[in-house]
Amino acid sequence: MEIRVFSDFKSASEAAAELVSQRLQSKPNFVLGLATGETPLLLYRNLIERCRRGKRDFSQLTTFNLDEYLGLAPIHPQSYRFFMNRNLFDHLDVPREQTHILDGSASDPQAACADFEKAIVESSGIDLQVLGVGSNGHIAFNEPGSAFDSRTRVVDLSDDTIRANSDGRFFKDHREVPHQALSMGLGTIMETREIILLAKGKLKADAVQRAVEGPVTENVPASILQRHPQCTFFLDEEAASKLTKQMLSDSSH
Ligand code: F6R
Hints:
By secondary structure, the chain is an alpha/beta fold. Helices cover about 30% and strands about 15% of the residues. Helix 1 crosses helix 2.
C-alpha cells in the first residue's frame, strides 16, 4: 500500500487525476472502475477538464461503477446512474453503452448482479478502480461484516451509511434513502489490477487509520486493501491525521 498525503484535498484529487490520466494514456481501451459520492467529484472535474483541453480521448474507455441503490431507476435524480451522467459521462466523449452501472430498478436484481460480473470478465477485468471510503470503513456498499470473497450482490445498508447519505448532500431525509443497494463485492474489487482510494476530512480519519494500520478484518472492509498488490491512498492531511506512522509524502507541502 502506498500512502500519499497532501496539504489539501484539491491537490490530492489532482494527483489522482494525473495517475488516472497516465494509465489511460498507456492503454486506449482502458477499463476504469468508478465510485460515486462526494469524494471523487474533484477527480472527475479534473478528468473533464483534461478532456476539454483535448488532452484525453475517452472514446475507447469502458467503465464499471461500484454500486447503485436498489429500487431507484436510472432516471431517478438520486440514482448513481443519474449522478454519473451529470458529474462525468455527460462531459466526456465516452459512448454511454460503454458505461456500466447496475440497474437499481432491474426486475431480477440478482440476475443483474450476475450479468454485471460477466460483463467485467468479458471486458478482461478492471484495470484501475477508484474508491472512496465510508466513515465505518465500507468500500462500495460492502458494510462491516461483508465477506472478503463477496461478489456483486444485493446488500443491506447500515444505519451509519443511511445517516451519512441523508445529511443533505444527497438525500435530505433519512426516510428517502433506500435501505438496500446492489454492490460490487470485496472479492470483485480485489481482482482489479490497480486501486486508488481517496479520502477527505477528519470524518474519514478513523476509517483510514483502521484500514491502513489496523488488522485485516471483515469488520473494517477497507482493511482488505492491505493485501492488494497495487493500491494507493490519496489523502488530505485531515484524513491522514490519525495515522501513527510518519507518512509525509512528496506532495505534502
Ligand atoms: C460510492 C461508494 C461509497 C462511497 C463512500 C464515501 O459509490 O462506493 O463507498 O465511496 O460512502 O462516500 P462520500 O464520498 O460521499 O464520503
